[in-house]
Design a protein that fits this description.
The chain has one domain. It is 0% helix and 62% strand. Strands 2-1-5-6 form a four-stranded antiparallel sheet, with no helix packed on it. Strands 3-10-7-4 form a four-stranded antiparallel sheet, with no helix packed on it.
Length: 105
């Protein structure tokens, strides 16, 4: 069984037991539960259900595993024939979660 959920501006296909990195959420500690209310579609034993735009009463529950960082990105600025050269980096924060249940009512 899988579900299509919306997290921020991204749509994710999730299954029970799957671990994924979502956008960073401040104030969440390890072991807390997150509920995703915007479920676009589900598929399982009873066939596929598609919402318009979201399924009413469908939720996906996930458990917080911790906070992680993404890969380091190098940001380099330079101007030709000038002595302006800057190199900085960036690492995005993510919240790692494990999908515990998909509920369709």
């Amino acid at each position: 069984m899988y579900a299509l959920i919306v997290d921020g501006a991204r749509q994710l296909k999730v299954e029970e037991g799957q671990e994924l990195a979502i956008d960073y959420r401040r104030g969440l500690s390890r072991g807390q539960q997150i509920t995703f209310d915007r479920v676009l579609a589900t598929s399982g034993e009873g066939g596929a259900k598609v919402g318009r735009p979201a399924l009413a009463g469908a939720t996906v529950t996930a458990e917080v595993i911790g906070t992680t960082q993404g890969p380091k990105l190098a940001v380099q600025k330079l101007r030709r024939r000038k002595t302006l050269r800057r190199k900085t980096g960036h690492r995005q924060l993510y919240t790692k979660v494990r999908i515990s249940s998909i509920n369709v009512s």
